[in-house]
Amino acid sequence: MDRQTEIKLIQEIIGLAEQKSTFLDETIAHSPISRYSSPERFEREQAMIFRRKPVVAAHSSELVGKNSFIARDFIGLPLLLTRNEAGDVNAFLNVCRHRGAKVERSVTGCKRVFTCPYHGWSWTNQGDLRGVTQEAQGFPDLARAERGLRRLPCAEAHGFIWIIANPDAADIPNIDQWLGGLADDFNWLELDKHKIMALETKTIKANWKVLFEGGLEAYHFRIAHKDTIAPYFPDNLLTYRQFETHMRAVLPRISMPELHKIPQENWAIRQDANLLYTLVPNVQMLVQQDHVMLFHYEPLSFNETRVRMATLAHRDEPQTEEKQAYWDKNQRITVTALMEDFVLGEEVQAGFASKGNPSHLFGRFEGALNRFNLVVEELIAT
Ligand code: FES
Ligand SMILES: [Fe+2]
Predict the structure, then answer these.
(1) Is ipTM beyond 0.85?
(2) Sign, Cα dihedral of 326, 332, 333, 335
(3) 128: CA distance to ligand 1 center in Å?
(4) How far apart are CA 188 and CA 9, in angstroms?
(5) Ligand nearest to the CA of 339
(6) What is the pLDDT of residues 337-362, one digit of tens each?
(7) What is the pLDDT of the chain when averaged over all its residues?
(8) Would the CB of 99 count as within 6 Å of ligand 1?
């Protein structure tokens, strides 16, 4: 984020607070509940978005060091992510090219060669077929070049490992272009120099979009978070901007409207606001003063989503027990507040079955929810 944008955003918040207002869209909007409660709709989102567009598969700091790997199921695919000797990341299907066994059973580790536990075929961590047991007798004409591990298009950028979750996809777009202008913010945040300090995973019984929506308005803070974070934020004050398919929201702390009392050169947006980045389709990041909370979503079905919640901090932060205790405490505070949203999300999801509401209503200060849904509509239509 450049200094001019930072100042403008702070001025906008101060102005809105003075008018006792918040960012308002032109009109209210309706969101049909079939968006969140239909298995067919879910399948379409999977095919058109999650299997076609760049998705974040892991954080770079989960794949540390040469020859490290991660093997995990992700959005319905058995993934094998590897880092080679040169430090480059590859993504493969963790499926044997002989008769389909799971090649790597460990969840994480360090290997140059992966050997299938069934008949012992092996591959390098660049996916090349390296060894076939009893090859001369059993497979005399084996076209080895055609039996590499199936590769998924993959890129590493801004501290994330991005893939196209489809082995038939030719390539992955340039990630900075895909980010629609947010790359400047991520460079400013030095996201590529962050690492995971704390992590936990929860499975929430709600559609992934219900969970995304929970972060896109500040209307609920005073009510839903009254026992946790509400006292730190002005009531229903937020501004947001769309970056093609993605979004940045500014959630000011109570101190931000007071910044007009100090010289502009002392303003720093991270000191007095949280920034929420929504990267469609599977990441939200809450940037706080000295760390970033990462919410990594994995839709499991139309009404179930796995969420990995991580505290990211700059890798140069001291690696002390004291500091770790601090990150753990931060993680607990955020997860506690977030669980208030997730419990509400599960209740909203459960309510769909009643068919009591044909659609939900987004007020003018909930415009980001509408725009997020319109982005998804557009992606599944094309
Ligand atoms: S299934 Fe892997 S070597 Fe046979
Ligand atoms: Fe919330």
Answers:
(1) yes
(2) positive
(3) 15
(4) 15
(5) 2
(6) 999 999 999 999 999 999 889 999 99
(7) 97
(8) yes
